[in-house]
From TrEMBL:
The keyword Oxidoreductase does not apply. Transmembrane segments: none annotated. It comes from the Bacteria. This is Histidinol-phosphate aminotransferase. Its EC number is 2.6.1.9. SUPFAM superfamilies: PLP-dependent transferases. HAMAP family: HisC_aminotrans_2 (MF_01023). The keyword Amino-acid biosynthesis applies. Belongs to the class-II pyridoxal-phosphate-dependent aminotransferase family. Histidinol-phosphate aminotransferase subfamily. The lineage of its organism: Bacteria, Bacillati, Bacillota, Clostridia, Eubacteriales. Its cofactor is pyridoxal 5'-phosphate. The modification N6-(pyridoxal phosphate)lysine is found at K224. Pathway: Amino-acid biosynthesis; L-histidine biosynthesis; L-histidine from 5-phospho-alpha-D-ribose 1-diphosphate: step 7/9. It comes from Oceanirhabdus seepicola. It holds the Pfam family Aminotran_1_2.
Length: 361
């Protein structure tokens, strides 16, 4: 081919997302398939958001509000930050790329946990950056060691809290200990995609720190607890100055009308969020009990998924579960050959997963 593809693209692997239900039904000829592979919310989304969506179809011919005014206002009000501190795009996936576009130049270093959300690595590499991956400590982030890896070339340190795929969190005292050691030329990204599910006490909510650390950014999403994954909307909180730079990279109409409308209402529906939190906690405890009775080791999770050691080749297990209509995230896609990540579903889905897992193991 005469066209020259950038070497960063040639070196990048293709990201394998969770198989959609329709694909499994089509390929395996199954009627009844459940997906516990992408940490979606099986309880759907706020009724208020659903009702509003029906009413705006006729506005589809127009571009959405480029400033995301109502959405940003509601986020700012709900989280007690200033409107100017909020930035939005098509999922926090897109925001991770925006951050790397803004900060990473060829040869820059970026620090992340060895087992964490894979889009950090892809987005850093896309810009010609180098990833320093720090081994896990008891399935959690070794934040002390991560901070020890900082040098003058370090541009970004990624803290995924709760961490995907392990579900683990670090606490306030661990965080306070390392924070003062992070120099201010390093951007601290706090990815809190699952914060609404956190059950642990002493969790360090990054919004409590952000005004003291102008080099810190919070990333959150409407794809998980808010149940709007398909609409693709994520947001970040940062200093007004940083938001100004990010807004040079983010496209004016990235967040569509449906996403803006639904998310603006979803963030205000605390009753829905509480229901989701309670049901998730109940499902998590059910899974823990079942894993305990099966003698399977798991990581204690603050998210809507559990990382569990199935002590077998997970490629095979994944295929076997798939044939029985259950999609999970296998270890070979996570870099953990004997561990799988299973999203917490409705109780009916959790029971079905456990039944099939017991049958196979
Ligand atoms: N961060 C983490 C830790 C995630 O697990 C995910 C989704 N799996 C994302 C960010 C991206 O979510 P979205 O693009 O749907 O907002």
């Amino acid at each position: 081919m005469a066209l020259k593809i950038r070497k960063e693209i040639l070196n990048l692997g293709v990201y394998k997302a969770g198989k959609p239900i329709s694909e499994v039904k089509r390929e395996l000829g199954l009627d009844d398939v459940i997906k516990l592979a992408s940490n979606e919310n099986p309880f759907g989304c706020s009724q208020k958001a659903k009702d509003a969506l029906r009413g705006i179809v006729d506005e589809s011919y127009m571009y959405p509000d480029a400033g995301n005014f109502q959405l940003k206002s509601n986020i700012a009000e709900e989280l007690n930050v200033r409107h100017e501190q909020v930035f939005c795009s098509t999922g926090s996936d897109a925001l991770i790329k925006v951050i790397c576009n803004t900060f990473i130049e060829e040869g820059d270093e970026s620090i992340m946990a060895e087992i964490t959300f894979p889009r950090y690595e892809a987005s850093v590499k896309l810009m010609g950056g180098k990833c320093i991956k720090v081994p896990m400590k008891n399935n959690g982030l070794d934040i002390e060691e991560m901070v020890n890896c900082i040098n003058e070339k370090t541009k970004i340190i990624w803290f995924c809290n709760p961490n995907n795929p392990t579900g683990t969190t670090f606490n306030k005292s661990e965080f306070n200990k390392v924070l003062s050691k992070i120099p201010d030329h390093v951007l601290i990204v706090m990815d809190e995609a699952y914060i609404e599910y956190v059950t642990s006490e002493n969790f360090p909510d990054s919004l409590d720190y952000i005004s003291d650390y102008p080099n810190m950014i919070t990333l959150r999403t409407f794809s998980k607890a808010y149940g709007l994954a398909s609409l693709r909307v994520g947001y970040g909180i940062a200093s007004e100055e940083l938001v100004g730079y990010f807004n040079r990279v983010i496209g004016p109409f990235d967040v569509n009308l449906y996403a803006q409308t639904a998310a603006a209402l979803a963030i205000k529906d605390n009753e829905f969020l509480q229901m989701v939190y309670d049901k998730n906690k109940e499902g998590k405890e059910y899974l823990y009990n079942e894993f305990d009775s099966m003698g399977l080791e798991y990581a204690v999770s603050d998210a809507n998924f559990v990382f569990v050691n199935v002590e077998t080749d997970t490629v095979q297990l994944f295929d076997n579960l798939l044939k029985r209509g259950v999609i999970i995230r296998p270890g070979h896609l996570l870099g953990t050959p004997e561990w799988i990540r299973v999203s917490i579903g409705t109780m009916e889905q959790n029971k079905r997963f456990i039944k099939e897992l017991k049958d196979i193991l």
